[in-house]
Design brief:
The chain is α+β, with helices and mostly antiparallel strands and 782 residues long. Strands 1, 2, 3, 4, 5, 6 and 7 form a 7-stranded antiparallel beta sheet that branches. Helix 4 packs antiparallel against helix 5 and helix 7 crosses helix 15. The longest helix has 36 residues. This is receptor protein-tyrosine kinase. It catalyses: L-tyrosyl-[protein] + ATP = O-phospho-L-tyrosyl-[protein] + ADP + H(+). GO terms for molecular function: ATP binding; transmembrane receptor protein tyrosine kinase activity. Its main location: membrane. Pfam families: FN3_Tor_3rd, PK_Tyr_Ser-Thr.
């Protein structure tokens, strides 16, 4: 198919505009060619052949419209060599072209115009009778492409010898408008976003490569006009690739399947109030090497059990549970680790198995009978033993069929071996001294605290803790946040994990403390104080101007001299205002602000290299230290959402719409690319000293504006070079946005060529505000 299409393109280019006889000569040359080497000699065949005979046969082309654009038509016909003429409306037939294959492309047409075609099939015996097509129309200039309706998965196959490297072939059906151009967006996770275009497509199908086993992939297809300035609504399609086991059925190359049918029971309550909690699951088709179980509860450190691969049961012994808990389990083999299965619950007193008074009475009666009748003792003992055995197996397995199960499937580990190993992040609660509350959110609070190390040195830290009565999901997210911060590691520009511990049955997350607060508040405070300084100086200026006017009235005879002096006075007074501003801002410069942006880019470069997606990068989630080092915070899974007006509810979640990338708004895709978009918004926040993005745009109109191509304009105090960096982050195509490494390099270039107010002018921010308001604006307005 690709070869015939290539030959057609070459031949059409060479013969476009031929007279009919010349085209027939070219077609005859092609028909007589036995190999590809002679095709190059067919481009100028005029005069080399005798007139080509006409044969009384139908062309049999069966022409249909394959696809179209504003200046393009592609027709489809039965395979073969054809001479094709085109007619516009009712005009005469134009020059002929030669086509070899089953598609013929006609570019450079006029928009919103009807065309029809006349085809002659060429064989070695001659050319056929003409076949005339229906009328086909190009798009109008303002045409809006139509949404496609059907997407299907044609096949999935192994792409290479690598385990679980797959290729999927996708087929879709165009609707009646038959567009030739399509935008494809494919994603299978936070780091596997692919965006590409199909232009002048010869087939309504494409392949997705480098897919992984058991991967949930989603496609978005939009039809577009010739330059993709207009796109249809997206059609979504989701599919799951086969698992490794479905392909190989071998646990030496594949991870085991996910553990199924998790169940729990409380088999005994001890005198100290603790429980033995049993976990059961279904036997898999292929037996793994072992299972690893983790018990998570708000009051306890996580506990671990490892049981053999032939087990279908494990018991957590002597567990103190007063609230909800969660049990996670994975199966392990040489081929890898399965996906995690989870079950959660709470202790139900009625479900705990304890000896009943009735059993005690029966036992005493039995013993009395045994003492009275020696001859029955042996029989009673034998029956009692059988009964106890049956009860034990029935209890653990739930039916008499359990007698067929070997006892070794009931597997427990000594309590001393169940605690997770200590790591360098675990702290002793006595090291912490909690102080005042720094902030409060929907899911927890952050408090200032002092941490004393083993050498007696005391450091201020921030402690994040959950609110009372958290849900199992809250607990799970809290532990996941700890895991993410541990895996992210240490970096000068991220708020790093210091440690964690449990205090009064509550888990605590201890992180670095940045005393200057968040960057948004820091910037807004600078802006507000600068405006106040200008307003105060302007008041003094008006008083001085009155004094100058009085002096002019008293000395009219020296008018010309005074006019000159007054000009100097006014200039000096304005200079005094500038001096006052500079005096206030002597500790913050535009270079400092650019350096803030560079530090954030550096921190995000580190996070993205560790495959951490922030999802909520904004000035409010960047913290400032007194030495002007900024640190990215809240890159874990459980965040405090503390500004209700910034977020829009969707289900149980809240979304920072004005910082979200267009693909996050339309498809809920969060990747490093969407973090880059948010960085562009953050850079705008820095330039404007903490203004709210899209200040004149309602939140519910953001997506509509972005899809129309709207982006925030260049702030008046921002250079074109700096705005270019900002604007590049907002490219509609994620893969066309710069990386954080490139953003850092671009900001480094600006800083290396830095001169005061060259790229970012603080004074322009002040005068813009001064022109808009006669009094200082409130922070809330920003």
């Amino acid at each position: 198919m690709l070869l015939t299409f290539f030959l057609f393109c070459c031949v059409t280019t060479a013969t476009h505009g031929f007279h009919l006889q010349e085209a027939l000569d070219t077609a005859k040359c092609l028909a007589l060619c036995k190999n590809e080497s002679c095709r190059d000699h067919c481009s100028q065949p005029a005069g080399r052949f005798e007139p080509y005979p006409r044969i009384k046969e139908q062309a049999g082309a069966n022409v249909t419209l394959h696809c179209r654009g504003m200046n393009l038509l592609i027709i489809k016909h039965n395979p073969g060599s054809y001479v094709i003429q085109r007619s516009v409306s009712t005009s005469s037939w134009g020059p002929a072209t030669v086509s070899n294959g089953e598609l013929s492309t006609f570019p450079n047409l006029t928009s919103d115009t009807l065309y029809r075609y006349r085809l002659y099939r060429i064989t070695q015996r001659g050319f056929s009778l003409a076949e005339t097509t229906d009328w086909f129309s190009t798009y109008a200039v303002d045409y809006q492409p139509t949404q496609i309706e059907h997407i299907s998965l044609a096949k999935i196959e192994q792409e290479s010898k690598n385990v679980c490297q797959l290729r999927a072939e996708i087929v879709f059906e165009p609707v009646e408008d038959r567009s030739c151009n399509y935008n494809i967006l494919s994603w299978a996770g936070e780091h596997d976003l692919i965006n590409f275009d199909l232009k002048k497509t010869s087939e309504f199908r494409f392949s997705l490569r480098d897919l992984k086993c058991n991967q949930n992939s989603t496609l978005s297809i939009q039809s577009g006009n010739d330059d993709f300035s207009k796109l249809s609504n997206a059609t979504l399609f989701t599919f799951v690739t086969p698992s490794c086991l479905q392909i190989y059925q071998n646990l030496t190359v594949c991870a085991p399947e996910r553990v199924k049918d998790l169940r729990t029971e409380y088999i005994q309550k001890r005198n100290d109030g603790s429980y033995d909690i049993a976990v059961n699951w279904s036997e898999p088709v292929l037996q793994p090497d072992n299972y690893t179980l983790q018990f998570v509860s708000l009051q306890l450190e996580p506990r671990l059990l490892v049981v053999p691969g032939d087990a279908i049961r494990a018991v957590f012994i002597n567990v103190h549970v007063r609230l909800q808990y969660e049990i996670n389990i994975v199966a392990e083999s040489i081929g890898g680790v399965s996906l995690q299965s989870t079950i959660s619950g709470s202790v139900d007193e009625t479900s705990v198995v304890e000896p009943s008074y009735r059993e005690i009475i029966v036992t005493l009666s039995t013993l009395a009978i045994v003492a009275m009748v020696f001859g029955i003792i042996c029989m009673q003992r034998r029956n009692k033993k059988n009964k106890q055995t049956n009860v034990e197996y029935m209890h653990f397995e739930g039916s008499m069929d359990s007698l067929k199960k070997p006892l070794k499937r009931d597997y427990a580990v000594d309590n001393s071996a169940t605690l997770l190993p200590q790591d360098k992040f675990q702290l002793v609660p006595q090291q912490l001294k909690l102080k005042g509350i720094l902030g409060s959110g929907a899911y927890g609070i952050v408090r200032l605290a002092s941490l004393e190390d083993e050498f007696g040195a005391v450091t201020d830290v921030a402690v994040k803790m959950m609110k009372d009565n958290p849900s199992v999901e809250d607990i799970k997210n809290f532990h996941q946040e700890i895991s993410i911060m541990k895996s992210a590691g240490q970096h000068p520009n991220i708020v790093s994990l210091i440690g964690y511990c449990t205090l009064h049955d509550k888990p605590l997350l201890v992180v670095e403390y940045c005393s200057n607060g968040d960057l948004q508040t820091y910037l807004r405070t600078i802006w507000q104080n600068l405006v106040n300084a200008v307003f105060e100086c302007r008041t003094h200026l008006k008083l001085n101007m009155v004094s100058v006017a009085t002096q002019i009235d008293r000395t009219k005879q020296e008018k010309s001299v005074l006019n000159h002096k007054n000009t100097c006075m006014i200039a000096n007074r304005l200079y005094d205002i500038q001096q006052d501003v500079i005096k206030y801002t002597e500790n913050i410069t535009s270079a400092d602000l650019l350096n803030f942006a560079r530090q954030v880019a550096t921190g995000m470069e580190f996070l993205s290299s560790n495959r951490v997606v922030h999802r909520d990068l904004a000035a409010r989630n960047v913290l400032v230290r007194p030495d002007r080092v900024v640190k990215i915070s809240d890159f874990g899974l459980s965040r405090d959402i503390y500004r209700e007006n910034v977020y829009r509810k969707k289900g149980n979640s809240k979304l920072p719409l004005k910082w979200m990338a267009i693909e996050a708004l339309t498809h809920q895709i969060y990747t490093t690319y969407s973090d880059v978009w948010a960085f562009g918004i953050l850079l705008w926040e820095i330039v404007t000293l903490g203004a709210t993005p899209y200040p004149s745009t309602p939140t519910n109109k953001i997506l509509q504006f972005l899809k129309s191509g709207y982006r925030m304009e260049k702030p008046p105090n921002c250079s074109r070079e700096l705005y270019s960096i900002m604007y590049s982050c907002w490219n509609v195509r994620p893969q066309s946005r710069p990386t954080f490494t490139e953003l850092k390099q671009n900001l480094d270039k600006l800083l290396s060529n830095y001169s005061e107010n060259k790229y970012l002018n603080l004074c322009d921010v002040l005068y813009e505000s001064d022109n808009e308001n006669n009094e200082p604006s409130s922070i809330n307005a920003r």
